[in-house]
Amino acid sequence: MASSKQRLEQVLAAHAAWTDSMPTLVKELEGGLTNQNFLLTDNDSRYVLRLNSEVDAVWNIDRDIEHQIHSQAALAGLSEAVVYVDDDLGYRITRYRPGKTLSQKDFVEMDWLEVLGTLVADIHNLAGNSETINYASHCQHFLDQLDLNSTITDQLQHAIDTLTALLAGLDNQEYVCCHHDLGPYNVLASEGRLFALDWEYARTGFAAVDLAIVIDEHCLSKQQKKFMLDVYRISGGQISKRDLKIVRPVVDLFDVLWNCLYAQQHQKEIELALLKKKLVQLSKHVKKAHKLIR
Asked: Are 199 and 234 spatial neighbours (Cβ–Cβ below 8 Å)?
């Protein structure tokens, strides 16, 4: 595989595809666990260059679907515009928008929770005509690549096997366009608005799963969770508290499997104590979800 420096040099050498002027590298941007992001500038504009992961298949990422949904979101004013995509060199260029992500400790600029609830609802109102995600298959893809001990593997496999039955127990759930990774690091606050970043896991899916991921990733309190749900409903969403409890195992599985795979891909030791703690939580949530659909 080419180094990130070599790939960056290749992108800059091919700049004529998206700008007339030779761009200058300003700095590498923070965030991006599977990709690398850089701030570039030319004579007139600033851009974000994202060097994609070179193992998209490992992460079950489809760049065509990502581009389709991201482009829809940009047209709707929910994300920055895509300037250029090169699948051969594995990069994409978007317009740079100054601001702060919600993950930054000094972020205090707005009543972000209300705006975030509206942003989620707006995403769900996009066309959503991409490939529909099968949550069980997605989780299975991750598990099949992991080298874990048999006991942990069996626990995760059992949880995955229950997903189809759990999701069938959702009432009046229609498939919608979902982001599936709208944590604080992927929400940018700029000029009194919120914009969604990083659409690589976006698919047509269940709104309840997407909202549950947002609630979990932002570590919302019980009161904040209620407020978020109220905002979402005012915006036209039909999710209930029961729906969120039923899909909770999906969120747990995404968290456990993704982090285990990330550690394995980067040759880091998996923290077994933390993993076992998360598996206990997963088991509890599976049991609670089963009770709700009986």
From this structure: no
